[in-house]
Amino acid sequence: MITPEVIARINELAKKQREAILTEEERAEQAKLRRLYIDNIKNQIKAALDDAVRQPHSDDCGCGCNHKH
């Protein structure tokens, strides 16, 4: 789960990386946290797309599509 603390740590490591060299442990932690963040975003997008259900249309659906779906 992405918490404000996780985002703060990602940002902290990114700032440190710009200013100095990260240790091996910090690079590993950064990679793990970035993967966690990216996977979370992917899951949110997938859930949103899974929830988007196309509704069947009829001649009187009223959506203005004129059945051009």
Descriptive report:
The chain has 69 residues and is mainly α. It has a domain at 4-51: Orthogonal Bundle (Helix Hairpins). It is 64% helix and 0% strand. It contains two helices and no strands. The longest helix is centred in the middle third of the chain and has 28 residues, at 24-51. The model has no long low-confidence stretch (mean pLDDT 87). Its main location: cytoplasm. It is found in: Cytoplasm. InterPro entries: DUF896 (IPR009242). This is UPF0291 protein Q4T40_04555.
The CATH H-level homologous superfamily of the domain at 4-51: Helix hairpin bin
The first-level CATH class of the domain at 4-51 is given as Mainly Alpha
Count of helical regions? 2
Order of helices and strands: HH
Largest beta-sheet details: none
The CATH level-2 architecture of the domain at 4-51 is identified as Orthogonal Bundle
The end-to-end distance, rounded to whole angstroms, is: 37 Å
What's the Cα radius of gyration? Answer: 22 Å
Pfam family, one: DUF896
Protein name: UPF0291 protein Q4T40_04555
Organism: Anaeroselena agilis
Family: Belongs to the UPF0291 family.
